[in-house]
Amino acid sequence: MQFDAIILGGGIIGCTHGHYLAQRGLKVAVFERGRIGGGTTARNFSWVNATSKTGNPDYHRLNALGVSMYDDLAAAFGAEAIGLRQTGALILARRSQAALHAALRRQAAALERLGYPVAWLDAQALQAHEPDLSLADDTEALLAPADKCLDAPRLARFMAGRIAAAGGAVFENCAALELLTDEAGAVSGLRSARGEMRAPRVVVAAGPDTPAVLGALTGYDGFATRFPVNRVPGLLVTTPPVEAGRVRHLVWIDGPRDLHVLPEPDGGLRIAADAEDGAVSEPPDPAALRPHAAALLERMRKIMPAFAGAELLDACRIEVGIRAMPQDGLSIAGAMPGAEGLFVIVTHSGVTLAPALGQLMAEVVADGVRPQMLRPFGPERLPGFA
Length: 386
Description:
CATH class of the largest domain: Alpha Beta
CATH architecture of the largest domain: 3-Layer(bba) Sandwich
Shape: globular
CATH topology of the largest domain: FAD/NAD(P)-binding domain
Structural class: alpha+beta
Number of domains: 2
Strand order of the largest sheet: 6-7-5-15-16-17-14-18
Number of strands: 20
Distance between the termini: 34 Å
């Protein structure tokens, strides 16, 4: 079969990128070794934001573009169709925790300088925004009204449908086996479990599996061992619908006993914390996860007394998402040096960045033009790729 571009990875990044390639008139094939949206895309905290990315202005701008592009997608296709909810986010800090409070104030000031919409809430205003939370009297918050929550698997499946409707193909449960090249060494296609597929462009968008996929496709073990992307596990606890105790925004509390919680569409809560992520191994041990999940539920109960806490443990979905983390924390997106027709997209903030990276990389893959916004994020910036 002949295609204009082949994408390896049917998660939110790969499918969204495929959608933008199809919009440009390319015939696209997506290969996913499992189910569309079934990997990291199905196990993440689902926060669409540029609020937490103030350390690097270029990276903030890329994330802010992703946030705004979700508004465009919702206008074009409907928020429900793509799984988008305009929740806003609240990041909390107590005045008595001076270092955390000062850091949050600096973050708010940085976001204002960057032009990202934020507001500062005192304790009274915060309580009005989240009436079911029981917080210390000196708790204040940064409100980021543009932030959103996303049903990421729904978006991936929606975009896969768009690719198929445009004349492309989506191959689920289909492993990519070998990259095909012509006599000059340029990419000419792919050998897969479904046979040989021809295309002059192959894009690897395999998330945390990117190093292993590149190694297997090219036969070069150095990709698997030295490609600068780490695997970072994260524990997620999703409750059933709760009758008492709700959050209206995504709520983020930093500190040694941090807590992150967002409202699920069915009335449940999704809960996570960096402190618990450090206790997760790969592959995860389900039995070992239970006490950490219970700790998250109890931590939630302390700020929401009406919540049942660890009593809900057996009714909760307890999962570990394995996330990609480039070694410098920034996205890797561009043509692979020395490999004509081979491209890579891998990032930590895939939920936020899928539209931005998908569209910008469509210019690279379809037209051979690298947009200015992508220039800081090419693979060539990294050791061994210059």
